[in-house]
Write a structure and sequence with these properties.
With 197 residues, this protein is mainly beta. It has one helix at residues 2-16, and strands spanning 31-43, 53-70, 73-75, 78-88, 96-110, 117-133, 143-156, 161-173, 182-195.
Length: 197
Amino acid sequence: MKKLISLLMVLFVLGLFSSAFAQTKTAKGQIELGGDVAFGMSTYSVEEGEYLIDNTTDFTLYPRFGYFVIPKLEIEPRLIFSRYSINYKSEDFEDWSFTTLGAIFAVAYNFETAGKMVPFVFGGFGFQTYSSDPKPEKDYETTMILPTVGGGIKAFLTDHGVIRFEAFYERHDKAGGVDKLTSNNFGIRAGVSVFLK
């Protein structure tokens, strides 16, 4: 984790003092609209005994809106829509699903080069709320996401069309809506963007 933060800081400082970037793709007033999609499926087994969960599936959509307040520096809020399903092996347990709704408020710094690739780093915070079917005995807590940090690259296929890849770390307090539960999450996201200016 310390190495990732150190690398992101070095990239940020290099970008601040570089004069070689064209700054046309990331000019002040530029708008970036896009989104990322994530899908996962897990199956479970044990060597001895019985494990109750058979499989889980999850689907997450992250719509994004970016606005460049100055060249290279972008405010980038995104929404979080997730759907999780848990299927049990035993008929004694009812299959369970839950939905999350949340938002992340982030700031991104883009290292624009003369080519088609634009590396970037970002940081921010957010939250998630939960609802499920069937309803739990105890209400879910709101998960706080602090921090969310990461970096990636935007590959310009055309002057306005972009494929985007990013790696991230997030710390979730009250993870999964459970009080006093904390999780550390590492992941990769991919998506597309359209630059409007």
